[in-house]
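Hi there,

I know you've been waiting on this one. I reran it after we fixed the sequence typo, so this is the corrected version. Both the input and the resulting structure follow.
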Amino acid sequence: MSQEAVTMQPRVVLDVRNIRKSFGIDEVLKGISFQVVEGEVLCILGPSGSGKSTLLRCINYLEQPSSGTVTVDGDLVGCRQHRGRLHALRPGQIARQRQAIGMVFQHFNLFPHLTVTGNIIAAPRHVLGLDQKAANELAMQALSEVGLTDKRDAYPRQLSGGQQQRVAIARALAMKPRLMMFDEPTSALDPELVGEVLDVMLRLAAEGTTMVVVTHELGFARRAASEVIFMDRGQVIEQGPPGDVIGRPRQERTRSFLSHEL
């Protein structure tokens, strides 16, 4: 292979290899493997209880996998390799690694006593060590990404649910993550507010943001996803482009799920 061909290979941002997770005797994840390259959007579909949220929590080590490895931008997450063996990192080391992964949850988890700007600059100030001026500039840039610069001085209680979720997205973006993950970000919203959050996510996808999205929004998956995974009972049942997995599913379990979602 020529040097030019090597340099043209897409950069793997996320490499998940044989992740298993058990809670007692209940095996929730049963050997999940996939890769996400730079600029790709991976949408994960599946019924409740299929292990989707647990998978995301294992990727950023909010849950420690029972076995398997997660690599973000070439760095092992949660452990290091020494003499052919994996050794767990300390909590502080894992927390620093999470800076590379932006996480948006179902619920917004904003600090009610802080303004929108205060919520966004908390991590850049205390984790990245930015001064007030630099952090404020970063916050305004992130708020511009989600269309909320006019709400910079508002408190969470003064915002709609959709606006609060957009602030949560801005907070994650302010850390300049290499990977953005979304865990059903519209599931806690009233139906009329879902569109404004999905519009922001579609714009991020169009700008080349590398994303992993757990969602029930099939329309979003069709439009934004480079790849779709359908999970059930802790396993990947089907994987491929959205036109295949959503439009022409091969597996009966996938077809049954989609028939209830459409």
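Quick highlight: Residues 191-206 form the longest helix (16 residues).

Best,
R. S.
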